[in-house]
Amino acid sequence: MILLADGGSTKVDWCLVDRGVLKKRIVTKGANPFFRTTEDISADISRSLVPELKNYKIDAVYFYGAGCAFPEKNEIVRTAIARNFDAPKIEIGSDLFGAAVGLCGNKKGIVCILGTGSNSCFYDGEKIVKNISPLGFILGDEGSGAVLGKLFIGSCLKNQFSNRIKEEFLKFIDLSVPQILDKVYKQPMPNRFLASIAPFIKDNIQDNSIHELVYNAFADFFRKNVMQYDSPNHSVSFTGSVAYHFKDVLCEVASGLNIKILAIEQSPMKGLIHYYSK
Asked: Closest by alpha carbon to 84, among 128, 26, 139?
């Protein structure tokens, strides 16, 4: 019996699988080791995951998560898991590699994540052979939920949208302007806060100004990332909540740039289950 995990900065999707059959699915808080410690992640696993799996013997854990691209960061997550599960095998990898395996299996392709953050790579069917660094939501993460939120709030508070949009947004967020600034500049995990604006953006995507903001953010993502992977000769697969919920705009941008999108999945988990069940 294996435990698969697809971990973003906001949440981790855990799936218990036995010979290709999904037995249980549990969602816990994000476990990005750039923002959380071993103790913090371990406590969350103990509280939210272990009670759900106490009657099962776990033979292997495969965790693919945001921030898990460096050995020292991977060890933070591996130790947290090992403290809670006596599994003979625990493997930690990047969420990008997990997405590549889940979306492409053993086939070549360009793989992208658009969620709280963003990332991309060229996958040769076995490994990631090229990756443009995402650089995080301050320097990069183009097209991500955090960047969409950052761009939207900045434009909204500088009166670039209609009065109706601004009034509805402030009602939606239920925070004063000083409180918004405090969330962004002083509170932990501002990327999550900024990404939490994405549902409001989606609900108002028919507004021309908001549509233009999202369109330009996705175009920025394609130009700075996807188009560095020989995109004319390879199709692109996407995963992540932003890619999934904004798929119409994403496809619109791709079409305008003559880029072929092969798939847009909310999660790579279905493909991961299939891959590890073979």
From this structure: 26
- Compute the distance between CA of residue 261 and CA of residue 252 in angstroms, rounded to an integer: 10
Rounded to an integer, the average pLDDT of 229-244 is 92
Residues forming beta bridges with residue 162, ordered by sequence position: none
Q: Which CATH number fits domain 2-100+269-277: 3.40.50.150, 3.30.420.40, 3.90.180.10, 3.20.20.70?
A: 3.30.420.40
DSSP 3-state assignment of 129?
Answer: strand
**8 A C-beta contact, residue 64 and residue 95:** yes
> Which pLDDT belongs to residue 66?
84
Q: Can you tell me the distance from the alpha carbon of 272 to that of 242, in angstroms, rounded to the nearest whole number? A: 20
